[in-house]
Amino acid sequence: MCMSRFSRLRRSLEELFPERHLYVRSGGEMRAFVLTTGKQLTFASVLAVCALWMGICTAAMMVNAMALSATDQEIARTQAKYERWIADRQARLNSAVAQLNAANGSVDDLALTVEKRHAALAMLLTDVKGAPGLTHALAPTIQRASNVPAGANPMRRIELVRASQERLIDAADNFAKSRADRLRLAFRLAGLTPTSYTPKGGSLGGPLIEAKDPRALAAVLDVDESFAVRIQHAATNMSEATALAEAAAKLPFARPTNHTGQSSGFGVRFDPFTRRPAFHSGLDFVGGFGVPIYTTAPGVVSFTGVRSGYGNTIEIDHGSGFKTRYAHLQAIGVNAGQRVAVGQRIGAMGSTGRSTGPHLHYEVWVNGRAQNPDRFVKAGDYVLQDS
């Protein structure tokens, strides 16, 4: 078997490199050279080895050149980075020395720093003035800050005020972060994406400040850089909390009735008339005839009247793709086109339409699709806990 394969290989090589005769004529004489298959294979092997060696050497030279180039670039970048750091530290040291020489550690300069910090804090807290729970959250810190000993020397009093400022910004930041986190969770409970309702940039004191560089913000607020960083962090949390609270106030998070009893939920259920599985697009609140019905968010009444199966119905457009529907009403207290506020009485519970007893059928629609109203009700209850 091996001999047969060897014979086939030999025949293939003889076909590829057949015996060739080379005739050279010189000085009237004719010389003949015979290039056998073995000689041709030897020449081809030598040429292949030489080509392979040249290819390997060329590739090695290119890889070495590229590695050296990348290493040189990395060294240059690292050197430039360290040079920038050294220059920045030297500039800060020179600035600190200049300030120390100019101020000579005077009480007046320390007092000026405290005043500038107070101004920055006032600007920060203006954005959340009147926010639910803010006074309660900051009261202990403010009370502690007011207990500065009157008999202490000026330097000691200034240091105590600076420490109080540090605690106050920490308390404000913790309050804003906690409030923003609670609102984000409420939005997720309702099946909404919180980032769709938060601002892209941070707002501080009215105008938009793109304070990605703490040194820039420190220059704008005229405070030290470390304090500016903390102001920036707190402002971002406050901005997000404010935006989420404003968005929540426009969404159907309130309860449509004070009666908390529920009969049928959102989803597939057995129809009370056909006794067959059917999709129920809302949430039913049980109660008696005449129980007040309230709007769950501010908006404009888009429909009042009778709808097939729903009986007396009110539909309210809340904007941004949100709509609510209140059905089986006994009475309707608003007109189409009327603007309503959250918690405003709009009708009375009844049993009109396809109904087996007095109750409110409540629906929430987002961009033309029915949502589970129970998620919005629970999210609203969670939001109210933060008030």
Task: Describe the protein.
This protein has eight helices and 14 strands. The protein has helices at residues 2-16, 37-103, 107-126, 134-145, 154-189, 214-221, 225-248, 373-385; strands at residues 20-26, 29-35, 267-270, 277-280, 283-286, 292-294, 299-307, 311-319, 322-327, 329-332, 339-340, 345-349, 359-366, 369-371. Helix 3 (107-126) packs parallel to helix 5. The chain starts with a helix and ends with a helix. 24% of the residues are buried.
Q: What do the pLDDT scores average to? A: 75
**Distance separating the two termini:** 92 Å
- Rg, rounded, reads 41 Å
Shape: elongated
| H/I helix tally | 8
Order of helices and strands: HEEHHHHHHEEEEEEEEEEEEH
Percent range for β-strand residues: 15-25%
Which structural class matches the secondary elements? alpha+beta
Stretches where pLDDT falls below 50 for ≥5 residues?
A: 142-148, 203-210
Main sheet attributes: strand count, strand direction, barrel closure = 7 strands, antiparallel
- What's the count of strands? 14
How much helix, percentage-wise, in residues? Answer: 40-55%
Q: What's the SSE blueprint?
A:
Blueprint (H helix, E strand, L loop, with lengths): L1 H15 L3 E7 L2 E7 L1 H67 L3 H20 L7 H12 L8 H36 L24 H8 L3 H24 L18 E4 L6 E4 L2 E4 L5 E3 L4 E9 L3 E9 L2 E6 L1 E4 L6 E2 L4 E5 L9 E8 L2 E3 L1 H13 L2
Antiparallel strand pairs: 1-2, 3-4, 5-13, 6-12, 7-8, 7-11, 8-9, 9-13, 10-12, 13-14
Helix pairs in contact: 3-5, 3-7, 4-5, 5-7, 5-8, 6-7
